[in-house]
Amino acid sequence: MAYTVKFKAGEPARFVRLLEVLVEGTFTFQATVSGESVVLKPVRLVAPKPYCGQHPGECLAGGPKKKGRWLEWDDWVAFHGVVNDALDAMHADADAWTNPAERLAQGKKMFVRKDNRRRVHFEWEEEWDDRLSQGVRVWNPGLDSSQYS
Predict the structure, then answer these.
(1) Segments making up each domain of the chain, as ranges
(2) In whole angstroms, what is the distance from residue 104 CA to residue 100 CA?
(3) Which residues contact 148 (CB under 8 A, 6 or more apart)?
(4) What is the pLDDT of residues 83-140, one digit of tens each?
(5) Cα separation of 92 and 37, whole Å?
(6) Contact, 120 vs 147, CB < 8 A?
């Protein structure tokens, strides 16, 4: 999943250096700086843990889980907080979003920061997936201004 931070003014390379310090020991990422944008890809955990998917909310799948360094719901929300902490510390004028890999969210932006305000409420909704004949959880993309502070 691509993670993009677009600066309206500022120093993208300085942001990458600060973020590297803030995530040390918890997350890893590769950063590409292009003009006013920074793309982080892939974002991973330093230490592997049981993984069952990027779905929001509690896990409904039973049985053993494979170990991996992929981020789950709580991990992503924690990473969003670190990104916003770095941008706040810089007093950066920037927007941040991810491009979720989930089938029902593909092609959408999931905002983490918008109009220089950090997102503080990360919610999800249950939607019906005809292909799977079951409900699936879809992250709220963060279009409602009440989700930001």
Answers:
(1) 3-56+66-147
(2) 9
(3) 113, 114, 115, 117, 118, 119, 120, 142
(4) 999 999 999 999 999 987 665 555 678 899 998 899 999 888 887 878 877 777 777 8
(5) 12
(6) yes
Strands (E), the chain: 3-9, 27-28, 31-34, 37-40, 44-45, 49-51, 66-68, 93-98, 110-114, 117-118, 124-129, 134-139
Residues 95-109 as b or e (16 or more Cβ within 10 Å = b)? bbbbbbebeebeebb
52 near 65, Cβ under 8 Å? yes
Q: What's the pTM value of the predicted model, to 2 decimals?
A: 0.86
- Report the alpha-carbon angle 19-25-30, nearest 5: 50
Reading the block at residue 62, the tokens are 């039973």
Q: How far apart are CA 21 and CA 145, in angstroms?
A: 30
Both structure tokens of 31: 């950063």
In this predicted model, what pLDDT tens digit does every residue of 96-109 receive, in sequence order? 999 876 655 556 78
